[in-house]
Amino acid sequence: MPEHTVGTREQWLSARKELLDAEKEHMRRGDELARRRRELPWVPIEKVYTFETARGSKTLADLFDGRSQLLVYHFMFGVGYRVDEQNPGCTGCSFVADNVCHLSHLHARNTSLVLVSLAPLPQIEAYRKRMGWTIPWYSSAGSDFNTDFGLSTDAGETFGLSVFLRDGDDVLRSYFTTGRGVEALGSAWTFLDLTPFGRQETWEDSPPGTPQTAPYEWWRRHDEYDS
Question: How far apart are CA 12 and CA 178, in angstroms?
Answer without folding.
Answer: 37
